[in-house]
Amino acid sequence: MIFKKPLFYFIFIVASLVSILTLDSCKKDTSFAEGNVSLTFSTDTILFDTLFTTIGSSTYTLLVSNTLDKPVNISQLYLGNGQNSKFRMNVDGVSGFHLSDVEIPAHDSIYIFVEVTIDPNSGTGPMLVTDSILFEVNGNLQDVNLIAYGIDAYFILPNRNIAGLPPFHIVSREFTDTTWTNDKPIVIYGYAVVDSNAILRIEEGTKIFFHSNSGLWIYKGGSLKVMGTKDKPVTFEGDRPEAYYENIPGQWDRIWINESSVDNEINYAQIRNGFIGIQAEYLQEDMGNQLSIKNTIIENMSGVGILSRSYKIDAENLLITNCKQYNLALTMGGNYEFRHCTFANYWNYDVRKTPAVYINNYYVGANNVVFPFDLVKANFYNSIIYGNNTEELLVDNNSQGGSFNYLFDHNLIKTENSTNNSSFWVSILKNQDPKFVSTSNADYHLQDISPAIGQGKSSVIPSFDIEGNQRDATSPDLGVYEYQ
After folding, report:
1. Could you read off the pLDDT of 207-262 as tens digits, one per residue?
2. What tens digit of pLDDT does each residue of 113-158 get?
């Protein structure tokens, strides 16, 4: 028994020492780098592209790195203008204007997410907003510049909600003639509606921006007059003007035009980055009007460039490019004429299984019931239909449909269709590469070796191309651009 007590104490002492050593080895190394420490930044300036006032920006990411062998303690990390800053930041999940003791382990990084919202100044010129993110380490100061440009705009916000319809705001009431001017951009949330027997005129140079799922609806009996010019076109696009969104399709919904007692007119417009560029259709009755569209570009639609349902369209110098489904879909019959148009589809976001141009004369309803419609005419003169699919033209004449009258006269077309019947096909350049300047850069001017040069029909108007260049009177070029 006299040996048990010393043995017990010996085991206790050894166990205690092991525990102390183990705890000590688990302690975090809090020895920070000392002296003149420099952080590394992914950029020294975050520049936000032009933003609309009151609308927040995209989120920009700043990577802050510690390249040293020891951890770094940022004693102060803050926005220079503090709580008065127009910018907002989030540091690895923690939001604030001023943070303290932000640690970066050795050879590691942190992320700072930055956004900005600019207050309106009731002016038409751009506003410059600046600030900086400051980093203080061991008494040394580093900074990253923040720069944003903003412009004021007219905002149209929805004030009506009716079941089955998107939120909307009537911008031109019954029996009124309303003009949108070009002094400020117009930003639309929901749908801007032109009511029955009303007219909306849009001045040259007006810039119209749509929020997600928003659009312009010309209701039954209403009328749209887009009055752009070559030097000052009217533009329709999404409300994110940052460079990243410049060519992103599907940012807004559509321009929706119903039947009217007055013709709808679009001249010199650019319609970009929506779901459907223009949807033109009759709701109940043929009121005898048409859509006249000239000198207009429709591009980068996540659905269709122009979707027509039994409508009447007269078009010249129309360029429609790069749509996920169809550049042009003429459905449920109708009455159409296209002169000097280019339908070029080189959609490359994913696989496109549909042709650039589609024409039919019927509608399939419930239980596969076919409803016939008359295709009074679908005439194409001096135009180009081309793209990166094998088949870029589908002429879909249903035997249960109505009349089906079409004509392709002096066109360059990529198609597997037979073009031998002169009742429908006249002077067709079939499957000949038009030699556009650059399809990857969406430049559909003709190279000097293009087979489309000089192949047009002389009696077809217009006398000028989409850029105002005089066309050759006897042998004009095919498409919207006359080779210079």
Report:
1. 999 999 999 999 999 999 999 999 999 999 998 877 778 899 999 999 999 988 88
2. 999 988 776 555 667 888 999 999 999 999 999 988 888 888 999 9
pLDDT of 68 higher than 50: yes
Give how far Cα 419 sits from Cα of 345, 356, 394, 425, Å: 21, 17, 13, 6
What is the SS3 assignment for the chain? Answer: CCCHHHHHHHHHHHHHHHHHHHHHHHCCCCCCCCCCCCCEECCCEEEEEEEECCCCCCCEEEEEEECCCCCEEEEEEEECCHHHCCEEEEECCEECCEEEEEEECCCEEEEEEEEECCCCCCCCCCEEEEEEEEEEECCEEEEEEEEEEEECCEEECCCECCCCCCCEEEEECCCCEEEECCCCCEEECCEEEECCCCEEEECCCCEEEECCCCEEEECCCCEEEEECCCCCCEEEEECCCCHHHCCCCCCEEEEEECCCCCCEEEECEEEECEEEEEEEECCCCCCCCCEEEEEEEEEEECCEEEEEECCEEEEEEEEEEEECCEEEEEECCEEEEEECCEEEECCCCCCCCCCCEEEECEEECHHHCEEECCEEEEEEEEEEEEECCCCCEEEECCCCCCCEEEEEEEEEECCCCCCCCCCCEEEEEECCCCCEEECCCCEEEECCCCCCCCCCCCCCCCCECCCCCECCCCCCCCCCCCCC
Instruction: Note the pTM of the prediction, 2 decimals.
Output: 0.81
According to the model, what pLDDT value does residue 143 have?
A: 94
> Looking at residues 80-101, what average pLDDT do you find?
94
